[in-house]
Amino acid sequence: MATIKPFKGIRPPKELVESIESRPYDVLSSKEAREEAGDNEMSLYHIIKPEIDFEEDIDEYDSRVYQKAADNFKKFMDKGWLVQDDKENYYLYAQTMNGKTQYGLVVGAAVADYMSGLIKKHELTRCDKEEDRMKHVRVCNANMEPVFFAYPDNARLDEIIKRVAQNEPEYDFIAPIDGFRHQFWIISNEDDIRAITEEFAKIPALYIADGHHRSAAAALVGAELARKDENHTGNEEYNYFMAVCFQASQLTILDYNRVVKDLNGLTPEQFINALSKNFIIEKKGSETYKPLCIHNFSLYLDGCWYSLTAKEGTYNDSDPIGVLDVDISTRLILNEILNIQDLRSDKRIDFVGGLRGLEELKKRVDSGEMKAALALYPVSMKQIMDIADSGAIMPPKATWFEPKLRSGLVIHKLS
User: DSSP assignment, residue 231?
Assistant: First the structure.
């Protein structure tokens, strides 16, 4: 059962939150972070993308860059741009996109639960990316950004969330770029804190939705600190890392689509003919076609949209991986026809996710940059949880969650 705890969050004063908050470190380049921060010395990018404080040719993995993150964190604290709460709280974070609001509880998640598999993964992580975040956590002695968890729906937690959300939020703003509303409440009532802790203790597992590298780095640094601490008791703050936990039914997963540079030597006619082996093909014409359901795909090629429906027998509904459209398209189109075998490294393929939509696919093909585009029906949260429960790993580039968590609303210090 899941172990969580409240913590003394480090947060901006209300009047500074919009100067400090930012997008997550991993959704933008150093150049974009430099441009977004501009002349705003309070931007969190000075801590989570500290290379922006150096010349543009600096290696973002240079030891000086990590040290700059720690120096800037101290500066933010010294100047009162970030202030630590005087008691342990939980926090409530709401995101509103296109009229739909999802509510997440900000908690300290247990390193031990990650190590034991009670916090479940569905993606592989890369050692170099883990090490980058571990260095950042070590030098700052803090989880600067939260990870994004899901949990099975819980009526008592839902009741607490709805009641807390009726109060005036501590923060309430529309974020630049995404245009979504973000709200934040402090849960300081001891009865509510106790109830939240008790309810999580009944939940059999938590699921990483987004932030696998941050989760791994935070947990590994926590375990590292425990090994080094001769007086370790298990109650230290480093035994926990910061997570925002959302009810699974509230989460929005968007389609994560593919564009390819060539047809592996085939003409468009030969490619369509090869697809007909495993798919029922309908020509849709010039009007954009969006997949209607699982096992239905849309293809854009030579100015025309097609509907592709996987034939019976090409997938296994009882296999949590084999039923996925991302697996079907990878096996039967990318691997078998286009000879794209490694989605992570092959330069002939790129991925278009999030809010950019099918028009972005059309644009990249019509420009001549890409030859064809393939759109998939979004993965469901149930599919992700089923895969995590089975111990399996999702194929690459399978999920795109929106809205992304804003960084800088609260920070968790490890001591």
Answer: T
How many whole angstroms separate alpha carbon 257 and alpha carbon 241?
32
Q: Which residue has the tokens 């739909």?
A: 100
Which residues 6+ apart lie within 8 Å of 308 measured at CB?
Answer: 275, 279, 280, 281, 296, 297, 298, 299
DSSP annotation string for 288-350: -----STTEEEEEETTEEEEEEEPTTSS-TTSTTTT-HHHHHIIIIIITTT----TTT-TTEE
Closest CA to 375 of 298, 286, 310: 298
Query: Which residues, 6 or more positions from 105, have their beta carbon under 8 angstroms from its beta carbon?
Result: 90, 91, 92, 93, 157, 161, 187, 196, 244, 245
Q: Kindly report the length of the chain.
A: 415
Cβ 119 vs Cβ 1: under 8 Å: no
Written as one letter, the residue type at 314 is T
Please write the tens of the pLDDT for every residue from 383-408: 999 999 999 888 888 888 989 999 99
Amino acid at 267: T
d(CA 169, CA 152): 25
**Nearest-angstrom CA–CA distance, 64 and 69:** 9
Own/partner pairs, 70-78, CB within 8 angstroms, 24+ separation: 70/139, 70/140, 70/141, 72/46, 72/47, 73/47, 73/140, 73/142, 73/144, 76/20, 76/42, 76/46, 76/47, 77/10
CB atoms within 10 A of CB 173: 16
**Number of other CB atoms surrounding residue 210 within 10 Å:** 22
What distance in Å separates the CA atoms of residue 103 and residue 149, rounded to the nearest whole number? 12
Question: Which pair of structure tokens corresponds to residue 351?
Answer: 């991925």
Give per-residue pLDDT as tens, 101-136: 999 999 999 999 999 999 999 988 888 889 999 999
What pTM value is reported for the model? 0.89
Name the nearest CA neighbour of 335 among 354, 321, 349: 349
For 151, counting Cβ atoms within 10 Å of its Cβ (0-12 exposed, 13-18 middle, 19+ buried), the class is buried
Q: In this structure, which amino acid lies at residue 367?
A: S
- Contacts of 42-45 with CB under 8 Å at 24 or more apart are 42/16, 42/76, 42/81, 43/19, 44/20, 44/144, 44/407, 44/408
Residues pairing with 155 in the sheet: none
Instruction: Quickly count: other Cβ atoms within 10 Å of residue 190's Cβ.
Output: 11
